[in-house]
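Pasting as-is:
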Amino acid sequence: MPILKHAKKKLKQDKKRTIKNKKIKETYKSLVKAAKEKNSPEAVSKAFSAVDKAAKKNILSDNKAAHLKSSLAKQKASAPAKAKTKAEPKKETVKETKPKATAKKSSGAKKAKPSTKKK
């Protein structure tokens, strides 16, 4: 048990941080597991988000986060695609065009500035 005041405070802080870090770690692990099972775009998106948050909080190293995201993306790509239904043709929208305002043209030659040099 700590004796010094600052050591007691540090112990309290460490306990709080441990609880918060455990929660983040459990969240990303469960979401990654769910994404691997379901293989739906929503689940993968949530897992990506959780992995990024864990990496931002230094619970995961950046390389491990990249490795997890890569494996999820590969699994998503290799999953059999659902039967696509025919999409309706896009409706063409007509844009109204306004006549462009013409800018005033300046005379070709620039006016010479009077010299202010003293002799």
